[in-house]
Amino acid sequence: MLRFHDAATLKGRYAWLSMVTGISERHLRNRDARPRSSTLARVEVHAEKFASVHLAKRGFSETERRDLIDRHPRSLAAGVVYNTEGADGFEYPVTKAFAARIDALGADINEAQTRNELECAKKLLVETDWLNRRYFARTVTERSSGVAPGMLAKIGGAKTWDDLRQPRAVVTANLLFSMLALWDIELHSKHFRRLQARSILSLLLPLNASSGARVRGMLHLPVRRLLELVYSLAERSCRGAWPKTRPSVTLLSTKTNESEQSVVNWRDGTKRFGWRDFERVWNAIFAATLRGESQAPSPLAPLFVAATIFQDLFVKIDSSSQAKEVWLVDGEYADWWSFHAENFEGAKAEENDASPWPAWLIRA
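-> structure tokens emitted (364 positions)
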């Protein structure tokens, strides 16, 4: 989640943390430093002042600011979910509660590592009641095999923290997909009830748009798909029908009031796309499409969060050659969405007038 903040704010991690906490970047980079209780108290005061100033700029009253700050989770993943609730005006209680569980487990394991209690960390992984076998499987096939995942044996045999690195990475990746899948389902239940029940966030995963042959532009990256999704939602909101084809660079440039070069660079990943960019682009596209007939809806922050995470995790761009390495993970994500949809009331239910999604948005 720290990497998400880096990408969303377009700031270096330590610069952002220094701004929020009031602690110098040099001190934050010192991993051996252990802050005193008095320092932590000053950090909390500084962070609250920082948040209050930010909220005041957005027009919140002092009472509203106090309430928002008091209710803010004191952990990272849950905090990200909570922040999106303020951005789009909807609450995601199931996702936020699950994110808080992830944060608490991560904090306990990190504390065990700080104390060098390897057996305690191993016990936390294998005995946490809600962390079932699914979270230890490396693939969909292993997850559905009925056989205990190999990572469980690796945890049991771990003698050093290095031995625990791969199992923790597998569990972390599964927890992230699991959380996003839950968020996906809540997002549909609040914003897209009149549309066919399906995963929304999977529309932002990297897509191979070729029919088999390697062609230029065959890989559609998450930020590109985000721009196309926002354009499509605006068109349907105004005209009651989906656009028949994906938007061109020229059309997106016109709708967003951004240069064609910026649109190209965002789409191919050579220019970073932060929260302020998303907010500006969303408002511009809806304003251009609605033409003053009604007020544009608030930006759907979970779409930005998912696209940013997917771009960070599954797209690697060589800074010198601009060569791209892209991971296609549709099956893995779909497996987690299906798992939660079976256990989430109404996830697969559709209203009688449920509208199908455009085929070009789902696949090339």
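The chain has a mean pLDDT of 86.
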